[in-house]
Amino acid sequence: MAAATAVSLFRYSPPHLTRSSTPNIRPLKLVFPKSLLNDHHHQQQQPPKPPSPLDSLFVFCTSLALSFSIYVADADAFVVSPPPRKLQTDELATVRLFQENTPSVVYITNLAVRQDAFTLDVLEVPQGSGSGFVWDKDGHIVTNYHVIRGASDLRVTLADQSTYEARVVGFDQDKDVAVLRVEAPKDKLRPIPVGVSADLLVGQKVYAIGNPFGLDHTLTTGVISGLRREISSAATGRPIQDVIQTDAAINPGNSGGPLLDSSGSLIGINTAIYSPSGASSGVGFSIPVDTVGGIVDQLVKFGKVTRPILGIKFAPDQSVEQLGVSGVLVLDAPANGPAGKAGLQPTKRDSYGRLILGDIITSVNGKKVTNGSDLYRILDQCKVGETVTLEVLRGDHKEKLPVVLEPKPDES
Protein backbone atom coordinates (compact mmCIF):
# COMPACT_ATOMS: atom_id res chain seq x y z
CA MET A 1 0.00 0.00 0.00
CA ALA A 2 1.42 3.32 -1.07
CA ALA A 3 2.38 5.80 1.65
CA ALA A 4 0.24 8.90 1.93
CA THR A 5 0.88 12.53 2.81
CA ALA A 6 -1.73 14.40 4.90
CA VAL A 7 -2.63 18.01 4.10
CA SER A 8 -4.73 19.86 6.71
CA LEU A 9 -7.52 22.26 5.63
CA PHE A 10 -10.48 23.76 7.55
CA ARG A 11 -14.05 22.92 6.79
CA TYR A 12 -17.25 24.28 8.36
CA SER A 13 -19.77 21.57 9.22
CA PRO A 14 -22.97 22.44 11.09
CA PRO A 15 -24.64 19.05 11.49
CA HIS A 16 -27.64 20.07 13.58
CA LEU A 17 -27.47 23.80 14.23
CA THR A 18 -29.90 25.35 16.69
CA ARG A 19 -30.04 28.71 18.42
CA SER A 20 -28.11 27.52 21.44
CA SER A 21 -25.68 25.15 19.65
CA THR A 22 -22.18 26.19 18.72
CA PRO A 23 -21.07 25.46 15.15
CA ASN A 24 -18.24 22.93 14.85
CA ILE A 25 -15.05 23.87 13.06
CA ARG A 26 -12.79 20.86 12.61
CA PRO A 27 -9.80 20.20 10.35
CA LEU A 28 -10.30 18.16 7.19
CA LYS A 29 -7.47 15.91 6.12
CA LEU A 30 -6.96 15.17 2.42
CA VAL A 31 -4.78 12.13 1.81
CA PHE A 32 -2.81 11.82 -1.45
CA PRO A 33 -0.86 8.63 -2.35
CA LYS A 34 2.86 9.10 -2.65
CA SER A 35 2.80 7.43 -6.05
CA LEU A 36 0.54 10.19 -7.31
CA LEU A 37 2.90 12.75 -5.95
CA ASN A 38 5.81 10.93 -7.54
CA ASP A 39 4.03 10.83 -10.90
CA HIS A 40 3.40 14.50 -10.65
CA HIS A 41 7.04 14.93 -9.80
CA HIS A 42 8.11 13.03 -12.88
CA GLN A 43 5.74 14.95 -15.11
CA GLN A 44 7.11 18.27 -13.97
CA GLN A 45 10.67 17.06 -14.38
CA GLN A 46 11.57 19.40 -11.51
CA PRO A 47 12.26 18.79 -7.86
CA PRO A 48 9.46 19.94 -5.54
CA LYS A 49 9.97 23.48 -4.22
CA PRO A 50 9.51 23.67 -0.48
CA PRO A 51 6.91 26.32 0.49
CA SER A 52 8.25 29.42 2.14
CA PRO A 53 7.09 30.37 5.66
CA LEU A 54 5.37 33.44 4.22
CA ASP A 55 3.29 31.31 1.83
CA SER A 56 2.27 28.96 4.61
CA LEU A 57 1.18 31.85 6.77
CA PHE A 58 -0.84 33.35 3.92
CA VAL A 59 -2.66 30.04 3.28
CA PHE A 60 -3.39 29.61 6.96
CA CYS A 61 -4.80 33.12 7.40
CA THR A 62 -6.93 32.85 4.27
CA SER A 63 -8.42 29.55 5.42
CA LEU A 64 -9.12 30.89 8.88
CA ALA A 65 -10.81 34.05 7.55
CA LEU A 66 -12.97 32.05 5.18
CA SER A 67 -14.08 29.67 7.93
CA PHE A 68 -14.87 32.53 10.31
CA SER A 69 -16.96 34.40 7.71
CA ILE A 70 -19.00 31.29 7.00
CA TYR A 71 -19.53 30.71 10.72
CA VAL A 72 -20.67 34.26 11.40
CA ALA A 73 -22.97 34.34 8.38
CA ASP A 74 -24.81 31.20 9.48
CA ALA A 75 -24.76 32.01 13.19
CA ASP A 76 -26.34 35.45 12.67
CA ALA A 77 -29.32 33.81 11.07
CA PHE A 78 -30.19 32.24 14.42
CA VAL A 79 -29.53 35.20 16.76
CA VAL A 80 -32.74 37.09 17.63
CA SER A 81 -32.22 40.63 19.02
CA PRO A 82 -34.50 41.43 21.99
CA PRO A 83 -37.23 43.92 21.06
CA PRO A 84 -37.08 47.39 22.63
CA ARG A 85 -38.91 47.64 25.97
CA LYS A 86 -42.48 48.80 25.51
CA LEU A 87 -44.95 50.16 28.08
CA GLN A 88 -48.45 48.88 28.43
CA THR A 89 -51.39 51.06 27.48
CA ASP A 90 -52.29 51.94 31.07
CA GLU A 91 -48.66 52.77 31.85
CA LEU A 92 -48.45 55.09 28.87
CA ALA A 93 -51.64 56.83 30.01
CA THR A 94 -50.23 57.35 33.52
CA VAL A 95 -46.91 58.69 32.20
CA ARG A 96 -48.74 61.07 29.86
CA LEU A 97 -51.02 62.28 32.67
CA PHE A 98 -48.03 63.07 34.90
CA GLN A 99 -46.14 64.87 32.14
CA GLU A 100 -49.13 66.96 31.10
CA ASN A 101 -50.21 68.02 34.60
CA THR A 102 -46.88 68.50 36.37
CA PRO A 103 -46.43 72.05 34.95
CA SER A 104 -49.65 73.04 36.77
CA VAL A 105 -48.43 71.91 40.21
CA VAL A 106 -46.34 74.29 42.34
CA TYR A 107 -44.27 74.06 45.51
CA ILE A 108 -45.13 76.47 48.34
CA THR A 109 -42.69 77.47 51.09
CA ASN A 110 -44.07 79.01 54.28
CA LEU A 111 -41.63 81.51 55.83
CA ALA A 112 -41.99 82.82 59.38
CA VAL A 113 -40.13 85.56 61.24
CA ARG A 114 -37.89 84.29 64.01
CA GLN A 115 -35.46 86.12 66.28
CA ASP A 116 -32.07 84.56 66.87
CA ALA A 117 -31.58 83.85 70.58
CA PHE A 118 -27.88 84.87 70.55
CA THR A 119 -27.58 87.70 68.03
CA LEU A 120 -31.20 88.94 68.38
CA ASP A 121 -31.31 89.26 64.59
CA VAL A 122 -34.70 88.86 62.98
CA LEU A 123 -34.63 86.14 60.35
CA GLU A 124 -37.11 84.49 58.02
CA VAL A 125 -36.95 80.74 58.32
CA PRO A 126 -39.03 78.06 56.57
CA GLN A 127 -41.64 76.71 58.97
CA GLY A 128 -43.45 74.46 56.55
CA SER A 129 -44.12 73.61 52.95
CA GLY A 130 -46.83 72.19 50.79
CA SER A 131 -48.19 71.94 47.29
CA GLY A 132 -50.62 73.92 45.21
CA PHE A 133 -51.76 74.29 41.61
CA VAL A 134 -52.28 77.03 39.06
CA TRP A 135 -55.92 78.07 38.83
CA ASP A 136 -55.80 80.62 35.98
CA LYS A 137 -53.50 82.70 33.79
CA ASP A 138 -53.77 85.66 36.18
CA GLY A 139 -51.39 83.92 38.57
CA HIS A 140 -53.88 82.61 41.14
CA ILE A 141 -52.61 79.59 43.07
CA VAL A 142 -54.95 77.33 45.07
CA THR A 143 -53.78 75.44 48.14
CA ASN A 144 -54.86 74.49 51.68
CA TYR A 145 -55.23 77.15 54.35
CA HIS A 146 -53.14 75.14 56.83
CA VAL A 147 -50.22 75.25 54.37
CA ILE A 148 -49.99 79.07 54.62
CA ARG A 149 -51.22 79.53 58.19
CA GLY A 150 -48.92 81.73 60.29
CA ALA A 151 -46.70 82.75 57.38
CA SER A 152 -44.98 86.12 57.23
CA ASP A 153 -43.94 85.51 53.63
CA LEU A 154 -44.76 82.90 51.01
CA ARG A 155 -42.77 81.69 48.03
CA VAL A 156 -44.09 79.71 45.13
CA THR A 157 -41.81 77.57 42.98
CA LEU A 158 -43.11 76.64 39.53
CA ALA A 159 -42.32 73.46 37.64
CA ASP A 160 -39.35 75.10 35.88
CA GLN A 161 -37.83 75.87 39.32
CA SER A 162 -38.45 79.62 39.01
CA THR A 163 -39.48 81.11 42.38
CA TYR A 164 -41.80 84.06 43.01
CA GLU A 165 -43.02 85.94 46.05
CA ALA A 166 -46.70 85.27 46.67
CA ARG A 167 -49.37 87.31 48.39
CA VAL A 168 -52.53 85.99 50.00
CA VAL A 169 -55.68 86.85 48.07
CA GLY A 170 -58.00 85.26 50.60
CA PHE A 171 -58.71 82.10 52.54
CA ASP A 172 -61.55 80.09 54.01
CA GLN A 173 -60.59 78.54 57.33
CA ASP A 174 -63.80 76.53 57.58
CA LYS A 175 -63.12 74.63 54.35
CA ASP A 176 -59.29 74.76 54.56
CA VAL A 177 -58.89 76.54 51.21
CA ALA A 178 -56.61 79.48 50.37
CA VAL A 179 -55.83 81.45 47.21
CA LEU A 180 -52.44 83.08 46.51
CA ARG A 181 -51.24 85.18 43.62
CA VAL A 182 -47.83 85.42 41.94
CA GLU A 183 -46.57 87.90 39.38
CA ALA A 184 -45.28 85.34 36.90
CA PRO A 185 -45.24 85.55 33.09
CA LYS A 186 -48.38 84.10 31.56
CA ASP A 187 -46.38 81.72 29.38
CA LYS A 188 -45.10 80.03 32.55
CA LEU A 189 -48.57 79.56 34.02
CA ARG A 190 -50.52 76.49 32.95
CA PRO A 191 -53.95 76.29 34.62
CA ILE A 192 -55.01 72.84 35.68
CA PRO A 193 -58.10 71.42 33.90
CA VAL A 194 -61.05 71.49 36.31
CA GLY A 195 -63.39 68.52 36.43
CA VAL A 196 -66.55 67.57 38.35
CA SER A 197 -66.78 65.66 41.64
CA ALA A 198 -70.56 65.08 41.76
CA ASP A 199 -70.46 61.93 39.61
CA LEU A 200 -67.49 60.18 41.21
CA LEU A 201 -67.70 56.46 41.94
CA VAL A 202 -66.00 54.29 44.52
CA GLY A 203 -63.32 52.23 42.80
CA GLN A 204 -62.32 54.61 40.03
CA LYS A 205 -58.65 55.44 39.66
CA VAL A 206 -57.22 58.68 41.03
CA TYR A 207 -53.78 60.29 40.86
CA ALA A 208 -52.17 62.65 43.39
CA ILE A 209 -49.33 64.98 42.37
CA GLY A 210 -47.37 66.95 44.94
CA ASN A 211 -44.07 67.58 46.69
CA PRO A 212 -43.99 65.23 49.70
CA PHE A 213 -41.16 65.86 52.17
CA GLY A 214 -39.91 68.72 49.98
CA LEU A 215 -38.99 66.42 47.09
CA ASP A 216 -39.54 67.31 43.46
CA HIS A 217 -42.85 66.46 41.81
CA THR A 218 -44.00 62.95 42.61
CA LEU A 219 -46.99 60.89 41.56
CA THR A 220 -48.97 58.44 43.64
CA THR A 221 -51.91 56.44 42.39
CA GLY A 222 -54.87 54.70 43.96
CA VAL A 223 -58.62 54.45 43.85
CA ILE A 224 -61.51 56.25 45.48
CA SER A 225 -62.20 54.17 48.58
CA GLY A 226 -65.10 56.22 49.94
CA LEU A 227 -67.37 59.17 49.18
CA ARG A 228 -69.37 61.69 51.21
CA ARG A 229 -66.99 61.47 54.15
CA GLU A 230 -66.84 64.24 56.74
CA ILE A 231 -63.74 65.71 58.38
CA SER A 232 -63.18 68.71 60.61
CA SER A 233 -61.29 71.83 59.59
CA ALA A 234 -57.91 71.94 61.31
CA ALA A 235 -58.34 75.69 61.96
CA THR A 236 -61.92 76.05 63.18
CA GLY A 237 -63.18 72.52 63.76
CA ARG A 238 -66.12 73.19 61.44
CA PRO A 239 -67.04 70.05 59.47
CA ILE A 240 -66.22 69.69 55.79
CA GLN A 241 -68.81 67.57 54.05
CA ASP A 242 -68.74 65.34 50.97
CA VAL A 243 -65.01 64.69 51.30
CA ILE A 244 -63.37 62.17 48.95
CA GLN A 245 -61.55 59.28 50.61
CA THR A 246 -58.69 57.68 48.66
CA ASP A 247 -55.94 55.13 49.24
CA ALA A 248 -53.44 57.08 47.13
CA ALA A 249 -50.41 57.86 49.31
CA ILE A 250 -50.71 61.42 50.69
CA ASN A 251 -47.70 62.33 52.81
CA PRO A 252 -46.66 65.59 54.51
CA GLY A 253 -46.01 68.06 51.71
CA ASN A 254 -48.78 66.68 49.50
CA SER A 255 -51.29 69.00 51.19
CA GLY A 256 -52.78 71.47 48.75
CA GLY A 257 -51.87 69.38 45.72
CA PRO A 258 -54.39 68.21 43.13
CA LEU A 259 -56.26 64.93 43.04
CA LEU A 260 -56.91 63.98 39.41
CA ASP A 261 -59.11 61.48 37.64
CA SER A 262 -57.91 59.25 34.80
CA SER A 263 -58.54 62.01 32.24
CA GLY A 264 -56.21 64.40 34.11
CA SER A 265 -59.01 66.66 35.39
CA LEU A 266 -59.04 68.12 38.91
CA ILE A 267 -61.55 66.44 41.23
CA GLY A 268 -60.24 67.49 44.63
CA ILE A 269 -57.55 69.06 46.82
CA ASN A 270 -55.49 66.68 48.94
CA THR A 271 -55.92 68.00 52.46
CA ALA A 272 -55.56 65.40 55.20
CA ILE A 273 -54.63 61.86 56.12
CA TYR A 274 -55.79 59.54 58.86
CA SER A 275 -52.62 58.29 60.48
CA PRO A 276 -51.31 58.08 64.05
CA SER A 277 -47.72 58.31 62.76
CA GLY A 278 -48.24 61.23 60.37
CA ALA A 279 -47.31 59.20 57.29
CA SER A 280 -49.62 57.73 54.71
CA SER A 281 -51.61 54.80 56.04
CA GLY A 282 -53.87 54.25 53.06
CA VAL A 283 -56.62 56.66 54.15
CA GLY A 284 -56.37 60.12 52.63
CA PHE A 285 -58.99 62.83 52.25
CA SER A 286 -59.54 65.40 49.52
CA ILE A 287 -61.90 68.37 49.40
CA PRO A 288 -64.15 67.90 46.34
CA VAL A 289 -63.68 70.32 43.47
CA ASP A 290 -67.38 71.23 43.43
CA THR A 291 -66.91 72.70 46.91
CA VAL A 292 -63.57 74.30 46.06
CA GLY A 293 -64.78 75.98 42.87
CA GLY A 294 -67.37 78.18 44.55
CA ILE A 295 -64.99 79.14 47.35
CA VAL A 296 -62.18 80.08 44.96
CA ASP A 297 -64.52 82.22 42.86
CA GLN A 298 -65.57 84.20 45.94
CA LEU A 299 -62.00 84.59 47.17
CA VAL A 300 -60.80 85.84 43.78
CA LYS A 301 -63.65 88.35 43.42
CA PHE A 302 -64.11 89.53 47.00
CA GLY A 303 -61.09 88.28 48.93
CA LYS A 304 -63.34 86.49 51.41
CA VAL A 305 -66.17 84.00 51.63
CA THR A 306 -69.55 85.36 52.67
CA ARG A 307 -70.84 82.39 54.63
CA PRO A 308 -74.05 82.84 56.67
CA ILE A 309 -74.05 82.37 60.42
CA LEU A 310 -76.58 82.25 63.27
CA GLY A 311 -74.29 84.06 65.66
CA ILE A 312 -74.35 81.55 68.50
CA LYS A 313 -71.99 79.48 70.59
CA PHE A 314 -73.21 75.97 71.31
CA ALA A 315 -72.26 73.19 73.68
CA PRO A 316 -70.24 70.11 72.67
CA ASP A 317 -72.36 67.27 71.35
CA GLN A 318 -71.34 65.00 74.24
CA SER A 319 -72.84 67.41 76.77
CA VAL A 320 -76.22 67.38 75.03
CA GLU A 321 -76.21 63.58 74.80
CA GLN A 322 -75.75 63.39 78.57
CA LEU A 323 -78.96 65.36 78.97
CA GLY A 324 -80.83 62.69 77.07
CA VAL A 325 -81.92 64.99 74.21
CA SER A 326 -80.80 65.51 70.64
CA GLY A 327 -80.09 68.89 69.13
CA VAL A 328 -77.79 71.89 69.58
CA LEU A 329 -77.74 73.55 73.00
CA VAL A 330 -77.27 77.32 72.76
CA LEU A 331 -74.64 78.51 75.24
CA ASP A 332 -74.45 82.13 74.10
CA ALA A 333 -76.45 84.31 71.71
CA PRO A 334 -75.08 87.89 71.62
CA ALA A 335 -77.82 90.47 71.40
CA ASN A 336 -76.30 92.05 68.28
CA GLY A 337 -76.17 88.73 66.43
CA PRO A 338 -78.84 87.12 64.24
CA ALA A 339 -79.95 84.64 66.90
CA GLY A 340 -79.95 87.26 69.66
CA LYS A 341 -82.09 89.58 67.56
CA ALA A 342 -84.54 86.72 66.96
CA GLY A 343 -84.90 86.08 70.69
CA LEU A 344 -82.98 82.80 71.21
CA GLN A 345 -82.31 82.12 74.88
CA PRO A 346 -78.70 81.35 75.97
CA THR A 347 -77.67 79.13 78.85
CA LYS A 348 -77.25 81.07 82.11
CA ARG A 349 -77.34 80.84 85.89
CA ASP A 350 -80.01 82.24 88.13
CA SER A 351 -79.50 84.29 91.27
CA TYR A 352 -78.88 81.11 93.29
CA GLY A 353 -76.16 79.87 90.89
CA ARG A 354 -78.32 77.17 89.40
CA LEU A 355 -77.76 76.40 85.71
CA ILE A 356 -80.68 77.23 83.45
CA LEU A 357 -80.38 75.58 80.05
CA GLY A 358 -80.86 77.70 76.98
CA ASP A 359 -82.78 76.84 73.84
CA ILE A 360 -82.01 73.53 72.12
CA ILE A 361 -82.22 73.79 68.32
CA THR A 362 -83.91 70.67 66.97
CA SER A 363 -84.54 71.64 63.33
CA VAL A 364 -83.85 74.33 60.72
CA ASN A 365 -86.39 74.84 57.92
CA GLY A 366 -87.91 71.50 58.84
CA LYS A 367 -84.58 69.64 58.58
CA LYS A 368 -83.73 67.69 61.70
CA VAL A 369 -80.70 68.81 63.71
CA THR A 370 -79.12 66.24 66.04
CA ASN A 371 -75.65 67.76 66.47
CA GLY A 372 -73.41 70.65 65.44
CA SER A 373 -72.42 68.99 62.17
CA ASP A 374 -76.05 68.87 61.07
CA LEU A 375 -76.45 72.56 61.84
CA TYR A 376 -73.35 73.52 59.85
CA ARG A 377 -74.39 71.32 56.96
CA ILE A 378 -77.76 73.06 56.69
CA LEU A 379 -76.28 76.55 57.00
CA ASP A 380 -73.81 75.80 54.19
CA GLN A 381 -76.80 75.41 51.88
CA CYS A 382 -78.23 78.81 52.87
CA LYS A 383 -77.32 82.32 51.74
CA VAL A 384 -76.62 85.56 53.52
CA GLY A 385 -79.85 87.52 54.09
CA GLU A 386 -82.04 84.44 53.93
CA THR A 387 -84.64 83.91 56.64
CA VAL A 388 -84.66 80.46 58.22
CA THR A 389 -87.10 79.00 60.72
CA LEU A 390 -85.59 77.48 63.84
CA GLU A 391 -87.52 74.99 65.93
CA VAL A 392 -86.22 75.04 69.49
CA LEU A 393 -86.92 73.17 72.68
CA ARG A 394 -87.38 75.75 75.43
CA GLY A 395 -87.97 74.10 78.76
CA ASP A 396 -90.70 71.54 78.22
CA HIS A 397 -92.26 73.03 75.12
CA LYS A 398 -91.24 73.79 71.52
CA GLU A 399 -91.20 77.12 69.75
CA LYS A 400 -90.49 78.31 66.21
CA LEU A 401 -88.40 81.42 65.63
CA PRO A 402 -87.55 83.14 62.31
CA VAL A 403 -83.89 84.18 62.02
CA VAL A 404 -82.32 86.38 59.31
CA LEU A 405 -78.86 85.02 58.51
CA GLU A 406 -75.96 87.46 58.50
CA PRO A 407 -72.47 87.19 56.95
CA LYS A 408 -69.58 85.87 58.94
CA PRO A 409 -67.36 88.64 60.30
CA ASP A 410 -64.09 89.34 58.53
CA GLU A 411 -61.13 87.23 59.64
CA SER A 412 -57.75 88.81 60.16
TrEMBL record:
Would the keyword Transit peptide turn up in this protein's UniProt record? Answer: yes
Q: Cross-referenced PROSITE patterns, in alphabetical order?
A: PDZ (PS50106)
> What keywords would UniProt list here?
Chloroplast, Hydrolase, Plastid, Protease, Serine protease, Transit peptide
Q: Which domain of life is it from?
A: Eukaryota
Listed GO CC annotations: chloroplast thylakoid
SMART domains, A to Z: PDZ
Has the keyword Protease been applied to this entry?
yes
Write out the annotated subcellular location.
Plastid, Chloroplast
List residues of the PDZ domain. 299-396
Q: Name one GO molecular function term.
A: serine-type endopeptidase activity
Q: Name one GO biological process term.
A: photosystem II repair
> What family is this?
Belongs to the peptidase S1C family.
The entry's protein name is PDZ domain-containing protein
